[in-house]
Structures are given as structure tokens and as C-alpha cells.
Amino acid sequence: MCGRYTLTNQDDVVTDLQVALDLTAGSEWWRPRFNVAPTQLAPVVALRDGVRALEMMRWGLLPFSAASARHALMINARVETAFTRPPFRDLAARATTRCLVPADGFFEWVKRGKQAFPKFIHPEPRRTIAFAGLWAHDSFTILTGPPNELVAPIHDRMPIVLPREAWDDWLAPATEVASARALLRVPATAGWVVEPVSARVNSPANDDAACIAREDEPPPIQGSLF
């Protein structure tokens, strides 16, 4: 799964993703994010009347069929079933409900005993990337798939990171379902790194540069106390 991610530098987001700003969404889109968590607002790129718009949406999909916001906890959609099962099937089939989720890294946790140690997984040097997403009711979900070799030792899922050349096709109305599905591949590991970071990221209330400060794990305890 993908339960936290970052967007620490918005300088290139507008130009890289070729978007128009939806100013009705407020001005907070540009704020550096070091710990985006479910239920929080975050920038998303979607088609509005055929034009790419950068809007603030809530992370946690509220499907069109949902009766209330209490259902809005679907932060991830599995790529293996997103095109065949509700509630994601209809959203994945239409370019108007596909989206790009700007980011520059994400977190996973390694468990050792009762403790979990956060890892920051990101391209190096850090740059704008885009997760494949789906949206409805101004809320969104991030598509996930099997991990690549870099992430596999940490977790059995990872977000689908669309290559830059696929951004246009993912949002294009002319892209048919089979072609859209073919875009969702396991991302390459080249140019990416995994860094141990501060446990400060464990709390969604924390959203500052200290969340991605490198902090090595303590060495495992050797031998037994008994």
C-alpha cells in the first residue's frame, strides 16, 4: 500500500504537469508537504472541461455511489482489480476520473519486533513524479501494484509511479481502457534510493522537514537475554 508520501518542492509542478491552477481550491497547494497522510487535502491533477487543472482533493476516495463521507477511507486501489471491480472500475475506465498525484517520494515501514522503522523511498536527485490515481467527489485514491526490487524487501505493495512519457496518455480521453491499463507497470529502480528517516513521520500531525531527516536504525540486539 501507500499510506504516506511527500511533495516537498512545488517549483516545477505547474510546468512539468502542464496544468492550469484552479484558484477556487485555495492557495495552499504550493505549501511543501513532508508527510501527506490519508484524509488530508493534497494537490491532484485532473481534467476539467478538457483542461488539466491542479486542484486540492482529499486523500481517501469517496465513490459516486457512496452515501456519505464515512466511506472515504479507500486510500489505495489495487491495479490488479481496479479495472474490473467496483467501486474503481467505472472511474478507471474514464479519463475524466483518472488523475495524476504529484509527489517526490513515499514512505514504508520495516518491522523489527514490536517496532516499525520508517523508510523514505524517493528518486535521487529528488524531482517531481506522478502516481497514477482515480478521483470522485473531490477525493482521490492512489493505484498500487507489486513492488520492484528496491521496495520488495520492505513491503509487498508500492504506488504506481507513471513514467513522464505516460502522463499524457493516462489523462487523454482517446486512451482506451486496455491502453490505460498497460501504462500501469512496476516502476524501474534506477535512480531511486531508500533512506531510514525519523520516527517523527509516524504521526500525521507532523509535516515538516524533520520528517525526512536521515536517522539510522539502531543495530539489532545480538544474542538473548534469557
Account of the 3D structure:
By secondary structure, the chain is mainly beta. The strands form two sheets. Strands 2, 4, 5, 6, 7, 10, 11 and 12 form an eight-stranded mixed beta sheet that branches. A hairpin with a 2-residue loop joins β4 and β5. It is globular, with a radius of gyration of 18 Å. The model has no long low-confidence stretch (mean pLDDT 88).
Short structural description:
By secondary structure, this protein is mostly beta strands. It has four helices and 13 strands.
Report the uncertain regions: none
User: Could you report the average pLDDT, rounded to the nearest whole number?
Assistant: 88
How much of the sequence lies in strands comes to: 25-35%
Global shape: globular
Features:
single chain, 9% helix, 4 helices, mainly beta, 5-stranded antiparallel beta sheet, globular, 8-stranded mixed beta sheet, 226 residues
Outline the fold blueprint.
Blueprint: E1 5-7, H1 13-16, E2 20-21, E3 33-36, E4 41-48, E5 51-59, E6 76-78, H2 89-93, E7 98-103, E8 105-112, E9 115-123, E10 129-136, E11 139-145, E12 158-159, H3 167-171, H4 177-182, E13 192-196
Parallel strand pairs: 2-5, 5-11, 6-11
Antiparallel strand pairs: 1-3, 1-8, 4-5, 7-10, 8-9, 9-13, 10-11, 11-12
